[in-house]
Amino acid sequence: MTYHHAAEATEYVSSQLRTIGYWLSAVKCCDYSGVYPFQPLVGLLGCTGYQMASLHTIAENGFTDGMMYDMHRPSYTSESIKYILDYIGEAGKRADDVEYDVLELGAGTGKFTQKFLQFKPKTTRYLATEPMPEFLTTLRTELPGLETRQCRADDIPLPDSSVRAVVVAQAFHWFADDESMQEIWRVLVPMGKLILIWNCKDNSKGWLGQCEGLRTKYCDSHSTHYSAFKWREKLNEFKGFRQNEHLYLPGIKFQGPKSLMVGRFASSSWISSLTEGKRKKALDKINDILNTDPDTRDAKIICMPMLTDLYYYAKC
Ligand SMILES: C[S@@+](CC[C@H](N)C(=O)[O-])C[C@H]1O[C@@H](n2cnc3c(N)ncnc32)[C@H](O)[C@@H]1O
C-alpha cells in the first residue's frame, strides 16, 4: 500500500495497532498493553497512540504526568468505599456472562482503585481502565497484578451485559456524552449499577475559594468541570439510568505543607494543560494567595477542606 501523506500513514498505523489491541483482548491472552511495545513507533509517527482524538483536549493535554498527579492527589474515604460496596451488593450476581463485578473507567493512576482494593472481597473481579498511557503506566506500577486495559469510556472492549457495576471516580464529567453513556449502559447487566464519586473541595474557605476562582480566569472551559453539573444534566437526559441516591459524605483528610497544596493545583488538568508561561503565572498567583491569606501564610501544615460527593444510578 503506498502512502503519499504522513498523516494517512499515521492513521493507518494507528488503526492497525488498535485492531491488534482488540484482537489480543478478544482472545484474552493480553489487553491493550499488547500495543505498548509499539508505543514509541506511534510516537515517532507523530500520533498520540490509542485513539486520543475524542478525549477532551484539556484532559488529553492535562493528564500526562502520572507521577506528579499521583503525588499530589488525595485518596478516598474508607466510609465511601463501604457505601459503594453495600450499594453494589448482589446486583446482577445471577446474570449470565458476567465477566467483571466492577469496571472502573478513567482510573487514572489508581487513587480510587487502591482504596477500593483494600476493601473488596477476594472474589470480586475488578477491571481498571484508563485511556492516557502515562497514567496507565503509573497505575500498573502502583498495582502490579491488577487487571487493567487502555480504553476510553465510549469504546469499552467488553461484551454486552458483562459487568455488574461501573465505578467512576473524579472523572465522569470528562465523558458525560451520549456515546460513553450508551457504552456504559451496554456493558452493564440489567439493573447493573453506575457509581460516580468525587472528592470535592469545600470552597467556603477564603484561600481555597480564591485559588479555585482562578480557574475561570485561566481556563475558558469551566463547563467541563464537575461543579458545573453539566454531566448531571446529560445523564438525566439520557434516560438509560435511574438515579437512586445522592450522598454528601465527610471528605478525605487532605493536609500537608504549602508545596502539597500548590502541587494539588498544578496537577489539575486546567493548570497542567496551560502553556508554560500561563501555567507559571497561575501557580505564582496560587503561591501569592497562600503566602498572604491569614489562614495559610504562617501555617506549616495546611488543611484543604474536602467533601465526598457520591451518586448511585441503576441501569433501567
Ligand atoms: C481527575 S482524573 C481521575 C483519576 C482517578 N480516577 C482518580 O480518582 O484519581 C480523570 C481521569 O479521567 C480520564 N478520562 C478523561 N477522559 C476520558 C474518557 N473519555 N474516557 C475514559 N477516561 C477518561 C483521564 O485520563 C483521567 O485519568
Which value, in Å, is the CA radius of gyration? Answer: 20 Å
Number of strands: 9
Amount of beta strand: 15-25%
- The second-level CATH architecture of the largest domain is 3-Layer(aba) Sandwich
Count of domain modules = 2
Percent range of helical residues: 40-55%
> Which CATH class of the largest domain applies here?
Alpha Beta
Bound ligands: S-adenosylmethionine
> Which superfamily, in CATH terms, is the homologous superfamily of the largest domain?
Vaccinia Virus protein VP39
User: What are the low-pLDDT stretches, counting only 5+ consecutive residues below 50?
Assistant: 1-53
Biggest sheet strand line-up: 3-2-1-4-5-9-6
Notes on the structure:
The strands form two sheets. The protein has a seven-stranded mixed sheet with strand order 3-2-1-4-5-9-6, sandwiched between helices. The chain has helices spanning 6-26, 39-44, 57-62, 66-72, 78-88, 111-119, 133-142, 178-187, 206-218, 230-238, 258-266, 269-272, 276-292; strands at 100-105, 126-129, 148-149, 163-169, 188-201, 241-250, 254-256, 302-304, 306-315. With 316 residues, it is an alpha/beta fold. The radius of gyration is 20 Å and the shape is globular. The protein contains 13 helices and nine strands. The protein has two domains: 1-50; 51-315, Rossmann fold, CATH 3.40.50.150. α4 crosses α11 (258-266), α9 (206-218) runs antiparallel to α13 (276-292) and α11 (258-266) packs antiparallel against α13. Helices cover 42% and strands 19% of the residues. S-adenosylmethionine is lined by residues 55-56, 59, 63, 73, 105-108, 111-112, 130-132, 135, 152-153, 169-171, 174-175.
